[in-house]
Amino acid sequence: MARQHAQLPVSSPRLLASAIGVAITAGSAGQMVFAAEKTESKTSGNAIALDATAITGEAQDSTSYQVEKASSPKYTAPLVDTPRSVTVIPQQVLKDTGALNMQDALRTVPGITFGAGEGGNPQGDRPFIRGFDAQGDTYLDGVRDTGSQSREIFAVENIEVSKGPNSAIGGRGAAGGSINLVSKKAHLGNSFDGGFTYGSDQTQRYTLDGNYQFSDSAAGRLNLMSHESNVAGRDKVDYDRWGIAPSLAFGLGTDTRVNLDYYHLESNDTPDSGIPYTIPTGGSAARTKSNPDKPYAGGDHDNFYGLDRDFRKGRTDTATFAIEHDLNDALTIKNTLRHGSSMQDYILTQPDDSKGNVNNGSVWRRANTRVSNTETTTNQTDLFGTFYMAGFKNSFSTGVEYTREQSEKSSYNVNTDTTPRTSAVTTNCNPGLIGAASGYNCTSLSNPNPNDPWNGAISRNYAGTDTQADTYALYVFDTLELSEQWLVNMGLRYDHFDTDYKTYNAAGTTTSKGDDTSEFVTGQFGVVYKPAENGSIYASYATSATPPGNTLGEGQEGNPLGGTPDRSGNLLSSDMEPETTKNYEIGTKWDLLNDRLSLTADIFRTEKENARVQVDTSSYENAGKTRVQGFELSASGKITDKWQVFAGYAFMDSEQVDGGPLGRANDGNDLPNTPKNSTSLWTTYQVTPKLTIGGGAFYVDDVYGSVANTTMVDSYVRYDAMAAYKLTKNVDLQLNVQNLTDETYYDKAFSTHFANQAAGRTALLSTNFHF
Most exposed among 44, 528, 622, 708, judged by the fewest C-beta atoms under 10 Å? Predict the structure, then answer.
């Protein structure tokens, strides 16, 4: 009998969230309107506390696509004077594009692609920035957000993308850059935003964002979300999740400010198993770069190759306590204590090509499974402000960090019930074995049935791996103003990274273990010349370090802890050194049209000269080399009072320069998940005071799935459109149509076996309330 999985009680929390929203709306809406009117009547000279790194003075236009400064105090200058490529996706872009998760949001930033996960490399967000895997380089309010997950944005204010090696700011990893999610926090003033979205493919989404000021210096904020949907153009796939994010703030507008924040997200999905790559007649060994395999669904791109046994459950909890004190007008100290956990539990049926199938019209169903939980505790203390030395102004930030991360990973036993059948089933999958002859593990490429009466057995496999890491770090950043025209930006970070692991069998007996201690110093240095107050020209250099065990098993380990086993299970020896990456960049940034529109351009070269590669049959060394170089252009802000734009273009020329003695066959090949050309354009125009229309185009060039360049997904162009109409000052409607032309394209390429197909045409109609 197939195992029936108990469903998470998604409906109950959703009803709770809805009830809370109704109660807040009914009980507080009138008070909020009254309080909002009182707030509007206050003089503009009052201080406005924006968040934990509060500023005073005039608030920036919240509807603008332009952002002047990153949220982290580690960025010691405005973006126009920061000598590196930083893109901030503001709240208005998230709203206008109809983004529902982090991947939706990041499609507006060229130079970022997404890779697919399976079992060993977990499901969840796997962004590649400038060709480097950034799965472990996502941060929440400047603190590393460990653990594989699919991130929501209902409680996110904006998203900051830093490109180029970024270890000086974020710590280990960040070879291609990092992503920082800025959360919605309690603030002064009263506000209420709520909405519901109905759309194609049974989409229903409800959100609430309410902020209430309790006193002159205290406020609370509550964000709620409930979402369920199918996926356009995909059979069986569905997403079901809910979340809650309360926030309390005390001392707003005073010298001492305290923030208490909590985030909970729970999901229960039927995951997409993807579309298999074609296989040459000679089998997978016959794949070539000149004729790479591409995903093919046997004539129907709606085909789903999973089974009704498939599920993916997730849970994320994050609690943050931050206290910030102004020592004087020019000096602030802040301490952030964070504890979080991230859980994944899934069985994903992958369309596997390892049994000689696909080219003969059949697909083998292989189960990928995972049960994992990652807990992270971080304490980070920052001191930042300004001081003068020898008459020169210094804007600085310095701090210390301690982090403990613990990951537990195990799996399921999935008995495919092929033992009683012919021995051919275990070695081959062909049309003669489709259906009952293989226990429904071999299915049709053109007509798979996810409701096949699969009758295997599922049980927990308690054998697994535990990994623990401790980070001790010191860092300092400074922007030195030599004159009105010349600035020097400097950053330095020291990391001590201890990590260890053990594997154990189902009885709990340790079967292997290992540990490593890495110490490394990373830095950044940039010189900025300002020919005018609103513009800059810069040159910069930055480094990163990726130690063994960087992702704690929560991502693809290019530099794994304990070496890599050979086919006999023997661990190969390794020098266990951190991989290092360096970046050279020259660029210019300008704020034009009365500082309403930001334009940037940069040329970069990123090199990894000690990538871990296998050098003989028994050992690894940090002897490989890869390189990505290119240029980028971007524009964000208002061209006129009514016309906004958020656009960018990236050209990336990637290459494996040296794959080591056993990998030289791929030297000269493009790196996986690194398109040569990618561009995004999103723009809106306010036709009348009540009507705004907009649209976008997103292009991504061909993407290889593997460094052998033998698997590939084709380039694509996707078009989106939107229209928003204000019924009253408190109510507006918004229609988004994504993938307007119903283009069939693939947005995630795995190195072998399969690629993930993107959603087809999707229409979303939102009704939003504001008080």
Answer: 44
pLDDT digits (tens, 9 = 90+) for 693-708: 999 999 999 999 999 9
* Per-residue burial over 87-96, b = 16 or more CB atoms within 10 Å of its CB, e = otherwise: bbbbbbbbbb
In the chain the first and final C-alpha atoms are separated, in Å, by: 54
Task: Please give the Cα distance from 762 to 740 (Å, whole number).
Answer: 8
Domain ranges of the chain: 11-770
> Each residue of 128-175: pLDDT tens digit?
999 999 989 999 999 999 888 999 999 999 999 999 999 999 999 999
Distances (CA, A) of 378 to 74, 155, 507, 750: 17, 21, 32, 32
Residues of the chain with pLDDT > 70, as a percent, come to 87
Q: What does the block give as tokens for 479? A: 């922007």
The CATH T-level fold of domain 11-770 is Maltoporin; Chain A (2.40.170)
How do residues 233-264 score in pLDDT, each as one tens digit? Answer: 999 999 999 999 999 999 999 999 999 999 99
How many Å apart are CA 509 and CA 507, to the nearest integer?
6
Contact 150, 267 (CB under 8 A): yes
Q: Say how far apart CA 546 and CA 499 lie, in whole Å.
A: 13
For residue 199, the cross-strand partners are 203, 764
For 77-214, list the strands marked E by DSSP.
86-89, 112-115, 127-129, 132-133, 138-140, 143-144, 156-163, 177-183, 191-199, 203-213
For residue 549 the two structure tokens come to 């065990």
